[in-house]
């Protein structure tokens, strides 16, 4: 089973948490509750293979920090999110990309697996970033691009499926970038939020509260 660590980056309020929660739990949360840092897990079956994802949902308000550099170092794939209703968030996503490229050893491992996401595509009347502008940036970065709506679940699963496939392809072609072997989790078959704030969010997951436990979720 592949064990993949995925980081979600983007400005505050673009919908990072809503995208992850919609993907993992299948619900939309209209109330804005700024994230400090959360890790979610989900088990997927894609192309007849099992993948265990650890998804790190970061704080959009945080300035770049050494913690963030640590996430980038240990992450296998990245979702860079802006809102189609905010030009500033589109500009910010380019700073996140530059940071990832600075930290990852591209000469050794090639370009990291990335999906550029323009969220809130349900809010067409508030759109200020055109689809073409997003596509153009993704072409420049040579990465995947999707417009999503966490609200109505448009393209939400597709983001993570695409990323997992990218990581799997990269691992096939480069043995040196193999992800770490599966670790024993306290909720091994679970699907949900597993921890909040920790020294290294990817290395020591704690059991999530009992009342939030979900049964194993496998997407076929
Ligand atoms: N219309 C619409 N609203 C959305 C969508 N996704 C998120 N929102 C709303 O945008 C606000 C911010 O969403 P969050 O998911 O908390 O944003 P975030 O990027 O995690 O923000 P930080 O945790 O502060 O970095 C909330 O009020 C959400 O309900 C979407 O696809 N469409
Ligand atoms: Mg959040």
Characterise this structure.
With 220 residues, the protein is α/β, with parallel strands linked by helices. It has a single domain, classed as P-loop containing nucleotide triphosphate hydrolases (Rossmann fold, 3-Layer(aba) Sandwich), CATH 3.40.50.300. It has helices spanning 16-25, 66-74, 87-103, 106-109, 131-141, 156-173; strands at 2-10, 37-46, 49-58, 77-83, 113-119, 144-147, 192-196. A seven-stranded mixed β-sheet has the order 6-5-4-1-3-2-7, sandwiched between helices. A hairpin with a 2-residue loop joins strand 2 (37-46) and strand 3 (49-58). The longest helix is centred in the C-terminal third of the chain and has 18 residues, at 156-173. The radius of gyration is 16 Å and the shape is globular. The two termini are 15 Å apart.
Q: What overall geometry do the principal axes of the alpha carbons give?
A: globular
CATH class: Alpha Beta
| Portion in beta strands | 15-25%
CATH H level, superfamily name: P-loop containing nucleotide triphosphate hydrolases
C-alpha Rg (nearest Å): 16 Å
- Tally of individual domains: 1
The low-pLDDT segments are: 182-190, 204-220
Hetero groups in this structure are:
guanosine-5'-triphosphate, magnesium ion
Q: How far from one another are the termini?
A: 15 Å
Strand elements, count = 7
Would you identify the CATH architecture? Answer: 3-Layer(aba) Sandwich
CATH topology: Rossmann fold
Counted by DSSP, the helix tally is 6
Strand order of the largest sheet: 6-5-4-1-3-2-7
Structural class: alpha/beta
Subcellular location: Cell membrane
Keywords: Cell membrane, GTP-binding, Hydrolase, Membrane, Nucleotide-binding
Protein name: small monomeric GTPase
GO molecular function: G protein activity; GTP binding
């Amino acid at each position: 089973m592949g064990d993949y660590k995925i980081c979600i980056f983007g400005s505050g309020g673009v919908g990072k948490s809503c995208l992850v929660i919609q993907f993992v739990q299948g619900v939309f949360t209209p109330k804005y509750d700024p994230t400090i840092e959360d890790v979610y897990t989900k088990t997927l079956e894609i192309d007849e293979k099992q993948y265990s994802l650890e998804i790190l949902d970061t704080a959009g308000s945080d300035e770049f920090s050494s913690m963030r550099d640590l996430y980038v170092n240990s992450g296998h794939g990245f979702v860079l999110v802006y809102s189609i209703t905010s030009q500033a968030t589109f500009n910010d996503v380019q700073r996140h990309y530059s940071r990832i490229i600075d930290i990852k050893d591209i000469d050794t491992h090639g370009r990291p697996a990335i999906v550029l996401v323009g969220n809130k595509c349900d809010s067409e009347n508030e759109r200020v970033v055109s689809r073409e502008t997003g596509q153009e940036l993704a072409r420049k970065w040579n990465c995947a691009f999707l417009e999503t709506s966490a609200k109505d679940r448009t393209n939400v699963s597709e983001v993570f499926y695409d990323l997992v496939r990218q990581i799997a392809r990269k691992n096939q072609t480069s043995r040196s970038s193999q992800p770490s072997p599966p670790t024993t989790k306290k909720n091994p078959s679970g699907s949900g939020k597993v921890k909040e704030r920790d020294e290294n969010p990817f290395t020591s997951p704690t059991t999530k509260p009992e009342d939030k436990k979900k049964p194993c979720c496998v997407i076929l």
